[in-house]
Design brief:
It contains one helix and 30 strands. By secondary structure, it is mostly beta strands. The protein folds into two domains: about 190 residues, YVTN repeat-like/Quinoprotein amine dehydrogenase (Methylamine Dehydrogenase, Chain H, 7 Propeller); about 100 residues. It has a four-stranded antiparallel β-sheet with strand order 3-2-1-30. The protein has a four-stranded antiparallel β-sheet with strand order 4-5-6-7, with no helix packed on it. It has a four-stranded antiparallel β-sheet with strand order 8-9-10-11, with no helix packed on it. β8 and β9 form a beta hairpin. It comes from Sphingomonas desiccabilis. Belongs to the cycloisomerase 2 family. Keywords: Carbohydrate metabolism, Glucose metabolism.
């Protein structure tokens, strides 16, 4: 329920990170209250956190600093103490992924177009230098696709590492080897429509299906994961209403644990598109909801609410979900300039 202080009742801890230049002041705790959402206190001074991932079963978080080209390993259980800091393996890190074993950490570096992968020890610390793949190529959009721009990484259940490259209109698939940290030569799992700009993927929790958000085209692509690791197109849908202005960009994607509801943010239209996902992985648009701010960059899906981080204005908003899983109007807002990432954990 939105009306209960979830972080006190259930032990849920929610925090936000963001970009320093617009005014983000490091990691900030968010509290869900009967009146909506409150910001504070400041938890740690980690700057330019646009992505993070928790090491399962621990209080450890890997957090990127997009400007310093670093990854920090911080312990939330000891007041966000810095445990380690290491290179992202490129420039402009913007996404992280852990494999199921917790022995591999991959990093997407937008600025350099590199995908890096570290082997981790039992404490979650990097072992040796990372394996790095430098992608090559460009797309037809001369302003945004002058070269490769790795925007997302994620491990499939079979251990393959996938990477979305906005600059080359590709989804790459890498073989990996957890015991050695080896990153094999990639294949092109999916060649996206030219100029579409693949941004983020979400894997269905049960079906061999992935959902791709393309930033420049503002589309949602339903992809079947073949046994070979290639991705075949099933459907491509717009994430925007028919009368939307053409200057909007696709943003974040969030899928509920059951794989029945999917959400995509639209930056420019400043909305969240909601989709129903049927047992076969087919999607159906439920509608669009104003996000409550400007440039919704990140979505955090909780049980009965959706938190939205806005990069340009509006901070973080909370959208309650109705019985069908569709978000309603904003029920609260926390003013956090430059908000770019939201994290949640349970003790």
């Amino acid at each position: 329920m939105v009306g209960s202080p979830a972080d006190e009742v259930s032990g849920l801890h929610v925090f936000a990170g963001g970009y320093q230049e617009p005014g983000a002041r490091g990691l900030c705790r968010l509290t869900i209250t009967g009146e909506g959402l409150e910001a504070g206190p400041n938890l740690a001074a980690y700057a330019n956190v646009s992505a993070g991932i928790r090491r399962p079963g621990t209080g450890l978080w890997y957090l990127v600093d997009e400007e310093a080209d670093r990854v920090t390993l911080a312990d939330a259980d000891t007041d966000w103490r810095e445990v380690a800091s290491f290179s992202s393996g490129g420039h402009g890190p913007c996404h992280l992924a852990l494999d199921r074993s917790g022995r591999l950490l991959s990093i997407a570096n937008y600025g350099s177009g590199t995908v890096a992968m570290y082997r981790l020890d039992g404490e979650g610390l990097p072992v040796g230098p990372p394996a790095i793949h430098q992608n090559e190529g460009q797309g037809p959009n001369v302003e945004r696709q002058e070269g490769p721009h790795a925007h997302w990484v994620g491990f499939a259940p079979d251990g393959r590492l996938y990477a979305a490259d906005l600059g080359t209109d590709q989804i790459l698939a890498f073989p990996t080897h957890a015991p050695t940290g080896a990153l094999g030569e990639p294949s092109v799992a999916y060649a996206a429509p030219p100029g579409s700009g693949p941004r983020q993927l979400a894997f269905h929790p049960i079906l061999p299906v992935a959902f791709l958000v393309s930033e420049l085209a503002s589309t949602l692509t339903v992809l079947k994961i073949e046994e070979s690791g290639t991705l075949s197109v099933q459907h491509i849908l717009s994430t925007l209403p028919a009368d939307a202005a053409p200057d909007s960009l696709g943003g974040a994607v969030a899928l509920n644990p059951a794989g029945t509801r999917l959400y995509v943010s639209n930056r420019g239209h400043d909305s969240v598109a909601s989709f129903a996902v049927d047992p076969e992985g087919e999607v159906r648009l439920l509608g669009h909801t104003p996000s409550g701010g400007t440039s919704p960059r990140f979505l955090l899906l909780l049980e009965d609410k959706l938190l939205v981080a806005h990069e340009k204005a509006g901070g973080v908003t909370i959208l309650p979900l109705d019985g069908t899983g569709r978000p309603g109007p904003s029920a609260g807002q926390a003013e956090l300039p430059g908000a770019a990432f939201l994290g949640a954990s349970w003790p």
